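Protocol check, entry for the methods section draft. Step 1: assemble the input record (protein sequence plus ligand SMILES). Step 2: submit for complex structure prediction. Step 3: store the structure tokens unaltered in the notebook. Ligand used here: zinc ion. Step 1 record:
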Amino acid sequence: MKTTGMKTLLRQTTLQLAVLLVLTSAAAAAPLEIFVSIPPQKWLSEKIGGELVSTNVLVVRGQDPHTFEPTPRQISSLARSRLYFTIGMEFEQQITQKLDGTVASMRMVDTTATIDRIPAIAHEQEEGHDVHVSHAADGHGEEPEKPAGQEEHERHAHHHPGDDPHVWLSPPNLIRMAKVMAEAMIAADPEHAATYRQNLNQTTDSLTQLHRDIATMLAPFRGASFYVFHPSFGYFAREYGLRQEAVEISGKSPTPKQISNLIAKAKEDKVRIIFVQPQFDSKSATAVARAIGGVVEPLDALAGDIPANLRTMALQIKNALDHSPRTQP
Ligand SMILES: [Zn+2]
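Step 3, stored output:
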């Protein structure tokens, strides 16, 4: 009797243990390990992957993505991940070189593949005309043709070696990136395809709404200029028919002469606010702001909660333009 009882108990315990093990392994099914370059991509990746993914970001708060260099530790965990979503930042090329041939299971996916990129920021201004004007943002995405000779010069002179990399500051671009990410997640984890698709649809809907809201908010200011330190807002400007004027020139702080030219231009444009990202030294922006009797406003292009950030950005730009009667063409 006793022995049978023990056996039954033992059998039950074994069964419970087995059930427990199955449950544990199901609950702890390893999330898809993902790497992204910058915080806004992490927001997107988490929106689409939810609890199915674990997203690591290379450039953290306060770091300048243009001068960023990944640590050896980051490179080795990147090599062990399943997906790396690139966005076209300079340091990604270093990573590609370092990983070359050593990674079997990790897939690099260019999230900007379907985005109509803005060509390298025009900075072919001759001496004397130093104001760094980014692309004519007419809202149609049309860029003036560059003379053939300047193409090569630009590639070497500017800190953005290729196209304007600040693609994430535009809801339509975010929608395109989300789709590329969802497809890559589905390919890596087909079992959860339905979830990824559902999340993609929700994300697309909310970004579409965001785009409508910002377009409405900024519609009265079409053709107006806003002043920034670092030219991160080319796509944002193009999307909403605005122009960004940058204090920084070719990735460098302006010379005193360039600053005085910019002050003259800002006075002419009746600008009162210059937006500055916390990642950059704002001394020259502060000098310009002081000279025009204006202020420097923080605006973080790399903030993680991208919809909240884009709304704030639109609101700040709207307020800045509301208070600066623009010169009619
Ligand atoms: Zn930048």
